[in-house]
Design goal:
Chain B: One of its GO terms (molecular function) is hexosyltransferase activity. The complex is a heterodimer. By secondary structure, chain A is of the alpha/beta class. Chain A is built from seven helices and seven strands. In chain B, helix 2 runs parallel beside helix 6. Chain B starts with 12 loop residues before the first strand and ends in a 6-residue tail after the last helix. Classes of the chains: A alpha/beta, B alpha/beta.
Chain lengths: 234, 178
């Protein structure tokens, strides 16, 4: 009887321990996520001095033009090295970024060239692609982004849509949760969005993934109070 | 309209651009007789259409007395030059084309493509039209817009400034203000 009882208990031990482990880990992760979300929106007070490695996610067309306008006024000695990422289907954006970096080289000196890197990434969603097929392409994009992010581990991420930035921001969030790298994400919603956020902007806003989100029209700030409106980029 | 001088030295170009998109309904609308006549009545002498990936081929015309000179191409590296020399720009609603035309202070009609799946583009065109920086039309209302527009009524667009955003980011990251 006793023996049988012990056997019964030891049979039960494993599932219970396993369950406790799962519940414990999940609770810890949830607490950590809440902690991350809370601190992400707070300004960085304690920071090692010196430049910050910066990842710049280039959209396409108008998105890239807006991002380059922002980069033109950012202090290059504070944000370096700079990693430029664009969709694999978009050659124009990286070329435009190269032109900007080349003009910096002329201004500041040759040594700045080594601070700029250019790379391409699979896109999670092409313009016009349906939301359902986007799921598969998003998974591929995430795997590729994970590989790139593990190599770069940027401290600052600047993005302004479209879909390319979602896998990167999601990975950066996971990196934060597991303490791999704390990066500050700044998302600037496209100037083309006047009444509603884009899908990318809405995801980053609702999931608290962007540390700071900027909109370029005051009426959007009214609709999404956690967003910042400090003027237009174009 | 008779006071408008149509001689060679007063070339007034209308540049139509669809960017990298396919926007046949715009090209087709511009190619109609009524739109071309309306443009001519407004004093425009030349019409150049950048048709992008569209399949509708407009009719070329040498522009004899009483009509506009029509020409077209698909893509060109000199789109910026056409924009600069244009007296009127008719553009698709992409923000790149819109802001480039506004930066050059060109009278601009933005035509919204209603065939796009996620049609957020009309937001920007309508907002800027409300602020009187451009005219906003649909392919089927283009004729009406051209006939009724007064380019003088447009207000010059003041380009935005990225400095406040950069300052915000710097402050957030703990960098001192310059």
């Amino acid at each position: 009887m006793d023996y049988g009882n012990g056997c019964f208990l030891s049979n039960m031990d494993f599932p219970i321990v396993f369950l406790l482990l799962v519940v414990g880990t999940t609770t810890l992760i949830i607490l950590r996520v809440i902690y991350i979300i809370y601190w992400s929106s707070k300004p960085v007070y304690t920071r090692s001095p010196g430049p910050l490695s910066t990842l710049i996610v280039l959209g396409s067309g108008g998105h890239t033009a807006e991002m380059l306008n922002l980069l033109a006024v950012l202090q290059k000695e504070r944000f370096k090295p700079r990693y430029y990422v664009a969709a694999a289907t978009d050659n124009m954006s990286l070329q435009k970024a190269r032109v900007l970096e080349d003009s910096l080289m002329d201004e500041i000196g040759v040594d700045m060239v080594e601070t700029a890197h250019f790379m391409q990434i699979y896109r999670s969603r092409e313009v016009g692609q349906s939301y359902i097929t986007s799921i598969g392409t998003t998974l591929i994009a995430i795997a590729h982004a994970l590989w790139l992010m593990a190599k770069m581990r940027p401290q600052v991420i600047l993005c302004n849509g479209p879909g390319t930035c979602i896998p990167i921001c999601a990975i950066s969030f996971v990196f934060k949760v597991f303490g791999i790298r704390w990066s500050s994400i700044f998302y600037v919603e496209s100037i083309a969005r006047v009444k509603r956020l884009s899908l990318s902007g809405l995801l980053l806003y609702k999931l608290h993934m962007a540390d700071q989100l900027f909109v370029q029209w005051p009426q959007l700030k009214t609709k999404y109070p956690r967003a910042n409106y400090v003027g237009r980029l174009m | 309209m008779s006071e408008v001088d149509h001689s060679m030295n007063s070339k007034r170009l209308v540049f139509v651009t669809v960017g990298t998109t396919c926007f046949d309904s715009l090209v087709r609308a511009v190619d109609t007789q009524e739109v071309k006549e309306a443009l001519f009545r407004k004093g425009y002498t030349h019409l150049v259409i950048q048709m992008g990936r569209g399949t509708y081929i407009p009719t070329k015309s040498p522009g004899e007395d009483g009509s506009v000179d029509v020409d077209y191409f698909t893509f060109s590296s000199s789109i910026a030059d056409y924009l600069k020399s244009a007296s009127l720009v008719i553009s698709h609603a992409g923000s790149g084309s819109i802001f480039e035309s506004l930066r050059l202070k060109k009278p601009l009609i933005v035509v919204v493509n209603e065939d796009l799946m996620d049609n957020h583009q009309s937001e920007l065109a309508e907002e800027l039209a409300e602020r009187k920086h451009l005219f906003c039309a649909r392919p089927q209302t283009l004729y009406q817009t051209i006939s009724e527009m007064d380019p003088e009524s447009l207000i010059v667009y003041q380009p935005g400034d990225a400095t406040p955003v950069a300052k915000f980011i710097n402050r957030f990251l703990g960098f001192p203000d310059d």
